[in-house]
Amino acid sequence: MSKVTVMIIDEEAFFRVGVRQVLSQESDFKILDCDPNQDPLKLIDANLPEVVLLGSNLASHNGLDLGARISRFYPNTKVIMLSPNPDDEQLFQVIKTAAVACLNRNSATEELIGTIRRASRGEYPINETVMSRPRVAGRGGSRPRVLARSSETGRQPRPAAATRDTLPGARGAIRGRSG
């Protein structure tokens, strides 16, 4: 069984160490970590992780910008944003980065591990989050389109066609561009 390489990027060293310790107990994970001020794109390029856990203070756009760059330059690396408590506007901004999930930094260990595994299989857990938040889901029209889950098709997920019913900015986010 091959291991899923997971990179933790967060400003707080204590947080990175704690998440690393928890995830290291999973035999199918290989864990790396990085301070976002240490050129994380260079580390991603050298290791090509399947999943990046990106800790982000979503009040500032630094984490969002980094998430968008990771999605754009490394499309096979799935970004999971970790935020203190994302509100609807912050979740909408995360969607535009092409992140596959957005979790509260205080999520249960089982939820984090399950989300990492789903993302590594090509699933988009953010879809359920969006659909459970009506203000975000309805932001661009009455029925936003979401990305297909690979578990249903057995193939790599394909972006939904951008139409007037998609979320504003979704065309760019689906292609890995923000805005």
What general form does the structure show?
Answer: globular
CATH architecture label:
3-Layer(aba) Sandwich
CATH topology: Rossmann fold
Helices and strands: which structural class? alpha/beta
Strand order of the largest sheet: 2-1-3-4-5
Q: Treating each run of at least 4 consecutive H or I residues as one helix, how many helices?
A: 9
CATH-defined superfamily: Response regulator
Distance between the termini: 38 Å
Radius of gyration: 15 Å
Low-confidence stretches: 140-179
Biggest sheet: strands, sense, closure?
5 strands, parallel
How many structural domains in the coordinates?
Answer: 1
CATH class: Alpha Beta
Arithmetic mean of pLDDT? 77
Q: Would you write up a description of this structure?
A:
With 179 residues, this protein is an alpha/beta fold. The chain has a single domain, classed as 3-Layer(aba) Sandwich (Rossmann fold), CATH 3.40.50. 40% of the residues lie in helices and 15% in strands. It contains 9 helices and 5 strands; from the N terminus they run E-H-E-H-E-H-E-H-E-H-H-H-H-H. Strands 2-1-3-4-5 form a 5-stranded parallel sheet, with helices on both faces. Helix 3 links the parallel strand 3 and strand 4 (78-83). The longest helix has 12 residues, at 62-73. The protein is globular.
In summary, what is this structure?
With about 180 residues, this protein is an alpha/beta fold.
